[in-house]
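Dissemination and training. As part of the outreach component of the grant, students in the summer workshop were shown how a complex can be specified as a set of sequence lines and then modelled as a single object. The example used during the hands-on session is reproduced here so that future cohorts can follow it. Participants entered these lines:
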Amino acid sequence: MTQLIQTLILGVLVGGVYALLASGLTLIFGVMRVINIAHGAFLILAAFLTYSIWTASDLDPLVTILFTTPAMFAFGWILYLATVRRIRGAHMSSSVLLTFAIALVVEGLMGLVWGNTSHAVRPAYFNESYSVGDLFLPKAQVYGFAVAAIVLGSLYLILTRTWLGRAIRASAVNPQGAALVGVNVAGVSALTFAVGVSAAGAGGTIVSVLYPFLPGSHYQWIARLLSIVVLGGLGSLPGAAVGALILGIAEAATVTYISPQWATAVPYVVIFVVLLVRPQGLMGARLREDVATA
Amino acid sequence: MRHAGRIAVALAAALLLLYPVVSDDLYYQNMIILSLVFAIGAVGLNVISGYGGYISLGQGAFVGLGAYTLAILSTRIDVSVWIWVPVAGLVAGVFAALLGVIALRTRGPSFVIMTIAFLFLLQIVATNWPSLTGGTAGITLPLPQWSIDIQNWPFYYSLVALLALSLLMSRRIRRTKFGMGLIAMREDEDKAATVGIDTPVYKLLAFVASAVFVGMAGAIYGYYLSFVDPIGMFNILLSVQILLSMLLGGRGTLLGPVLGAFLIEALNEWSNNNLGGGNARLLLFGGLMALVILFLPRGIIPTARDLLEARRKRGKAGLVGARLELRERPAPAERPPVGPPLLEVRDLEKRFGGLRAVDGCSFEVPEGSITALIGPNGSGKTTVFNLIGGTMRPDAGEVWFDGERIDGLRSWRRAYRGIGRTFQITRLFREMTVLENVVAPLREFRFGQLNAGAVSGPEAERAEELLDFVGMRAFRDQKAAALSYGQQKLVELAQILMLDPRLIMLDEPAGGINPTLIERMGDMIRELNAQGKTFLIVEHNMPFVLGLCDPVLVLASGTCICKGTPAHIQKDPRVLDAYLGADFVLEEVGV
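and obtained this result:
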């Protein structure tokens, strides 16, 4: 029983971080119908930025989020204007291929700058845990979860309580309608992409503390994130949160009850099962594809 | 120009066949062998991605599957290694079919995600199942036993033969109904289903066709390397290079993928020699892929072809702006007597989230009638069409056609039973010519038919007759995308007439077209009706509806509120209320 509760707790803690990472992916899809395959590469990039700041200064790695998030925001903005913007309106698979190409380039650049070896950010508290009865809560996981929850909460408030958030959601639901009521849809798209990438930045900083990483890790991460958004329903923010918790728990359970080496297969199996059983995901609505836009 | 192209292809083929005989340079032999593997992969990928429109990032998985099949079997069973090559093709085909079954319910982005997942899952299985695959250490194969004098000829020529087979298959597919159906799916999958294309069967077959030769090539590739491991065989970069070969050369063309493969392998070799490590290769291929998608999305061959075409046509007036051939036609005979209901809709319901778009709608369409379905914007007319045609499934209610319940049938089965529909915003297959658009519909499904010529025989004649009927024959070789909106409406009408439907459903046939054409549209509908076709028409142009249709059904808020003759409908207070709202009536009373 203790083992089960322990597994659930670890799953939820890591699921919170997954939720933050997946939120950016699903947000970008919701507004632009772009599946950003480079999301995994962006989060690894942020992890490397954290690594560099952490080794060069005495800052707590989680504090570097204050630098990585705006840096990734700017990076996302520029990248959108330089590349993604040009293929708006093209077939959706073009954007998948383009962002995949970007992921390869970012992976190559990270390899050149930081090398293709495994890196890890280990603050002093890395091996410490809080104990609650028989349960143990690793400090890094708890802090990571807390930071992810704060960032995700702020993102949620921005989306639901501000004019900008309403503009983003309006553009997601009906771009033409949003344009008619005065929303600069092109500008909102750039902003959304940048916000999505900055969420990957914040998440990447947390990831750097929790897991070792190397440039090639981004495949595994994008697989996880894709399985989360497919499970939750593409474009659904609450869906991403629910999907993230489920995946976090499923992975933790696989590690505990089957074997750690098969845990990497969990996201792929989730993708196949969801697409077979419920292609629209848990909370995704089927798109009204019949209403072709002229 | 065409000749020059053929000569170039023939020369390239001859060079490929003779190269190992005239030169014993193993370096270039190796390069060509790798190019051939890419080329076979890309030609296969082209079937599903270029023709069918399903982009895959997991094509390299079939190379890996083939290589592993050969490695596993040849190290366990001691017979000639070559026997396992066709077996590897079979294994790849079976996996492709499994993938296809899962893909039946996914499209666009979900599909690409699935192909990546497929590749990585295989890699994990190969890594974590050491008793079968040797795990991370991989499997070392027995070295070939043949004389050193013939170098790598067996590998080389078997791959050349596989490439030739792949190309023959690709060419055959492109010229048959099968290929035409795939292209129709690429252009518009829902629409393809409404004109009788059994999309799941097409998809499954295309998947298998895109994998079998690739699996065999993978087996030869594994044997050639004499070593397989999870990192090398299920490397995403291999899939990227195959995909890039197809994109660069030109997707949907026969030889584009081959051209691309040889270019990509040359680049690969150059980067290995000059740039060194893997990071530079990532930058090179990632960067190239981004550039191709942004600046050369159609690939080399189609772009070059268009440039030549444009040069040839410069200064010549296009046909597209030409006038329609409107001919006087004899006045149609009297209307046939109206018969029993051909179509019955009972308590139909469809919700989108909280919105009840169709809410308990019931009506019937008598055989031989021209029935109108009118109603204010947002009253659910198009949704009713989608429910009858099968593009959407109702949440509740029944649809009966000619005494048979059809609401559980897929779109193409409804098309076989005699329902043809047009769309409010025309949905032609834009990259196909007008004639191809009209011959695309199928009235039944047979496996033999897949292998029939795409545009040939009595069908092509019938299509020309129909184009003549709608006055669009002169446009038969134009791309559908080049036509004006009104012209597209006419072609779409001819297209569904190809189904020889008993019920023709037109969604706003007179919307957005000029008055002459509206009149012509009305005449054609009367003429077809006189031949026994039943019509159900959604239209906002009231003079058109009231002059043509009887009975008229009025839809408001998803329910059929009224039915009657045009004269009756014009006076019915419920109709006035639905169109103009309660406020209007009050005001009028006040004046």
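Residues 2-116+135-216 of chain A form one domain. Students were then asked to discuss how this feature might be tested experimentally.
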